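Quick one:
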Amino acid sequence: MKLLSEFVYRFRKPIIFSTFIITAVLAYFIKDLSINSDFTSYLPETDKVVTTLNYVSEKFSGKHIAIIAIESDEIFSKETIERINHLTSKFRLIDGVSYVTSLTNIIDIKKVDGGLEIAKLIDEYNLPKDTNELCRLKDYALSKDLYRDRIVSADSKIALIICKLREGSDDVRIAREIKEIVTEANMKEKVYFAGYSFNILEVSKIIIQDLRLLIVLALIVIISVLYLSYRSFCGVILPLISVFMSIVWALGIMSLLKVKITLVTNVIPIVLIAVGSAYCIHMISKFYEEGSKGYDRASQIKISISEVVVPIFLSAITTMVGFISFIFGSYLTVIREFGIFSALGILFAFVISITFVPAILSLLQAKKDNDTAEWSLSKKGGDKFNLFMDMISKWILKNKVLVIVIGIVICVLSIFYVLRVQRNVDMTKYFKSNSEIRIASEMMRNKFGGDMPVYFLVEGDIQDPKTLTEMKKLQEFIKSQKNIYNPQSIVDLIEEMNDVMGEGRTIPDSKDKIGNLWFLIEGDEMVEQLVDPEKREAIIQATMPNFSNPDEMHELGEKIQEFITKNIDTSIVKVEITGMPFINEHMDRAIVESQLMSLVIALVFVLVCMICLHRSIINGLVGIIPIVFTLLAIFGFMGYFEIPLNLATVLVGSISIGIGIDYPIHFTNRFRIELIRTNNELEALSTTLKTTGKAILINVVAVMLGFLVLTMSNLVPLQNFGILIAITMLSSGTATLTLLPSAILLIRDRT
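Output:
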């Protein structure tokens, strides 16, 4: 470490200059960062449900839909029909929209003299105007399963315009354009926006708003705490500059590698504020401590680097492993990306804290002796703090067994609630209960069965009666199931045409008859969305509500798969299931597996590091006490307050390990040094609490309050994430300053 300290001091100006240059260059590339809020891309492309959904999207002109729901006292009024027709025609012109379905362009199969007629339910060039005509239209539309509760509600108060988005199109842009068109139309009716496309539009908007607002608010809070703690320029500005640089470097590298910002990687800047700031604070604290002893500036820098670099390095490397564990332990690509770039950001924060920070400190004008005597608080406040730490030291020495017992009781209670932690991948629950998205989703659930499409891909000769019969069996089974609504396929159209022709509502018994009927509907937009041009593949599509309980979704999927295996003739057809509900179910399973695997990998590595650091299995186990305590406290808190495991909160475990390892490494390193120096437990503990303990407390308070700013986010998972990280900081800091010294002292008493 002597070589490093001399290098930093000797080349301090080039280090500062080069650091600013690197920051400026990488900051330039951040402007090219884009946002990816498409949840289907969060799973690997090789995932079976994802590959099937992408295939369906390519074959049938899209996988995502944007739903515009129009609510009126009476949908079948002249003015409302005109506005629906106007919007339908406008939406069809949007680049990326493959099909638009509404009352004014949906297919209609009518019986006429001499046979049947295939037309539109409403002629867009001759809209009904007469009251009697509108009443007849209403009665007719509500009498047919093809329209009732699919495109218009049974009470005729809500009508849907459904836009299907072409594969590869920009869903966010299209959703934004749709909203702009509706705004320009000056609708008198109430309008809801539902469906996946509007969900990701809102997520994208909130991500941008949060990045702009919450990081600034978090920094203001942290600046306030640092100022109250240090009362100096470098004590406030340097931690922020170092963290800012590490954030810029990480995001700049992301941009250069064309990695997009997601709901998960959006958290990286705040993670670096939490974890990265600690390294700088420890360096500054040691610097001030040495300054209070009367050392000159050069000696302050060299001693600070020599004594702090090793614990900072160990903290950084173990924290990085906590994040790298996501690479090996997560099935979700988005969480792997989070792990990679969080670890990279931690590496940058470490490098900056041991080079740039001491280089800056070496150039600052030395303070007067009376100013450096109390290095982190005002003179009066510092005296009170030191007296308080003396009291804490005496109390811990006297009550170390009680401290351990209290810790064990909290852990046992936490385990009870850990078992109650729920999971939730319902995207609508990411928004506040009074948000437009939640209100629209609830309306769609109540009136139309949901706004999430599911697809059953059927492979076979679609014009063969046997194939259609197998499809009908599956469709009827789907219709009988709870939480899946309005299954629709080419079978419905074939049977309706057959019924109009007087043959009954059944599937024709020959390919020729089916071919004759098919000729009448070939080329219709609705048919093109249900059957591929070669007539070798078709889909049964249905709608589902968002599932709050992923176990119910899994159970439904298993039930449908079991029916297919036992009742569908696979020699005639092959069936594959996909859709966003099943994507969410896979994501839920991946979240649970990611949590378990990443925690196991991180804990094992951290334990090995602690054993190597202390050269003792017992001391290594003692060193991870704050981590274990924090993990149990966090997940117990989640279980007690019913905070679910989701894309954001799944990160808390490994972040807790990253934060949790930093404090005990610094604490045990200083405590061991003081025990050797003084050979007095009380003096060693008191000195450690007044120095390293003070730095830990400053970091805990600053970051805890900074993360509580996330409770102002419009995304519920980020609100919960902020609360959980704040609890993590509090638990980890408290355990390090109380449980850890108690355990160390108890072991010393027995050896």
